[in-house]
Amino acid sequence: GPVHTADLVVFGGTGDLSMRKLLPALYHCDRDGRLSPETRVIAMSRGGLADADFRGKVDAEVRDSVPVDDPAVWQRFLGRLHHVSVDVGAANHPGWHHLAELLAPHEERDRVFYLASPPRTFGPFCRELAEAGLVTPRSRVVLEKPLGHDLPSAQRINDEVGAIFDERQIFRIDHYLGKETVQNLLVLRFANAFLEPIWNSLWIDHVQITAAETVGTPGRRGYYDHAGALRDMVQNHLLQLLTLTAMEPPARNDREAIRDEKVKVLQALRPIVGTEADRFTVRGQYVGAGDLPGYLDEPGSTPPTESSRRVETFTAIRAEIRNWRWAGVPFYLRTGKRMPYRRSEIVVQFKDVPHSIFPGGSPNRLVLRLQPEEGIELHLMAKEPGAGEVTLKPVPMALSFGKTFTARVPEAYERLLTDVLAGNPTLFMRRDEVEAAWRWIDPILDAWRATPALPEPYPAGTTGPAGAHELLGRSGRAWHEEE
Ligand code: BG6
Fold it and tell me: Ligand 1: does its nearest atom lie under 6 Å from the Cβ of 418?
């Protein structure tokens, strides 16, 4: 469709997220013709850079990570970039005046204020933007994670931002929603007829949602000590995958219809309270193994403290959804750093055949892989060729997006930035969603805080502590591992 001209103002504009994800994604949008010729990107930071310095920095640090097949397009992209210096909490900082001068001649444009700065700056930056008279009816604000560290802090941020912007102007990012397979999950479920009749507790035994990473947390201790896997990955990414897997079919492909159904799933999660956390949750922390350092030995700007010893770098949870469709079907969630592979997937395990006439065999599984190679696999039982006794073997019926579609799979941020620029909030979290997610997470955090026990150690490069295997093993189930 036609692309609007917008001024995109990025707070934290020279930070890690901006340099590694946002600017490369914007370049791709530019290259694919999804930015209007006048669209500008204004990076805000404390850096005191001139436009030319910032362009030089992007040229030096971003160019090699993107495909520059036409140098003219790269120059056009650099030409969109500006830099303004501000500091949070400094309402009369000259930067606000400078920003106003840049924006004022284009009052009629869409304005997007992208807060890729720490969450404590969200409220103050919004207030200062309003005081500087920069918030127009055509303005939107994008909030990066983490959106608070518990329900009260999330509500405070939502109140502060909500005092300046209407809910329809607020775009809360969860970059997992921009991943291609995640959107494909909705298409798979709601554009194919055969799945819906079996998508329930009559046919499905359980669901596993895994986000395994090989990376550790080098240099991130300052953040990670106070986050941990539950806040960093489960509250947002894994719960979003759970809602899309479990939601009822919406009546329309429309922003509110889809988000209404998602929030109902979060509200139906059975709370895990007090000592139940011992049975339904597992915490782990990686320790050094081979060449890999343990969490406490990761090089970091700060030495380890008591919080470092208590923080989980791995968690596994048995969640339950209390409604007609899902009663009795566990949703196992698992995420960890320094696991043996990088793999994010949703595994739907169907029930076993009611009566087996062949030896061996295992239940059908539907695997939706988000990464590394995006695809969908349905594991069916087949007969191994041979004249002897029948031997069963699971064979995947596989759809590989990379092999089926030749177009490049866009990065999550490309899709999300395109949607923000177009004003489409469907793939962003609504206030009630974020708060419902925290409402379920908070009691688990409380239970973990209340126990003197430390997270279970697991050697770096392994699939997590023994407890994670027992969580499923107790009911005769096992995590889906590479065969
Ligand atoms: C971020 C977390 O939100 O997601 C990181 O803060 C994590 O700790 C990252 O590594 C994972 O994203 P992806 O897209 O690589 O799965």
Answer: no
Nearest CA to ligand 1 atom 5: 232
Q: Coil, helix or strand for 388?
A: coil
The residues annotated as belonging to the active site are: 237
Q: Give me the amino acid identity at 272.
A: I
pLDDT at 2: 60
Give yes or no for residue 174 CB within 6 A of ligand 1.
no
pLDDT of residue 222: 87
**Residue 144 in contact with ligand 1 by CB distance below 6 A:** no
CB distance 335 to ligand 1 below 6 Å: no
Best probe residue, ligand 1, of 232, 240, 342 (max atoms within 8 Å of C-beta): 232
Give the per-residue pLDDT at 482. Answer: 52
The reply to whether ligand 1 has any atom less than 6 angstroms from the CB of 345 is no
Question: What's the pLDDT at 306?
Answer: 94
- Identify which of 191, 10, 208, 32 has the alpha carbon closest to the alpha carbon of residue 99: 10
Q: Is 179 annotated as a binding residue?
A: yes
pTM for this entry: 0.95
**Is pLDDT at 1 greater than 70 in this prediction?**
no
Give the pLDDT band of residue 299 (cuts 50, 70, 90): confident
Tell me how far the alpha carbon of residue 315 lies from the centroid of ligand 1, in angstroms. Answer: 15
User: pLDDT, tens digit, for every residue of 412-460?
Assistant: 999 999 999 999 999 999 999 999 999 999 999 999 999 999 999 999 9
- Read off the pLDDT of each residue in 114-123 and give the average, rounded to a whole number: 94
Residue nearest to atom 14 of ligand 1 (CA): 176
Q: What is the DSSP string of 215-237?
A: ---TT-HHHHTTTHHIIIIIIII
| 240 CA → ligand 1 middle, Å | 14
Tell how far the Cα of 357 is from the centroid of ligand 1, in angstroms. Answer: 45
Share of the chain above pLDDT 70, in %: 99
Residue 198, pLDDT > 70, answer yes
Which residues have CB under 8 Å from 372's CB, separation 6+? Answer: 342, 343
- Distance, in Å, from the CA atom of 178 to the CA atom of 320, rounded to the nearest integer, reads 25
**Residue 9: enclosing H or E segment and its boundaries?**
strand 6-11
388 CB-contact burial (10 Å; exposed 0-12 / middle 13-18 / buried 19+): exposed
Q: Which residues contact 207 (CB under 8 A, 6 or more apart)?
A: 242, 245, 246, 329, 330, 331, 332, 346, 347, 348, 349
Distance (Å) from CA 232 to ligand 1 centroid:
8
CA 394 distance to own-chain centroid: 31
Using only C-alpha atoms, what is the Rg of the chain?
24
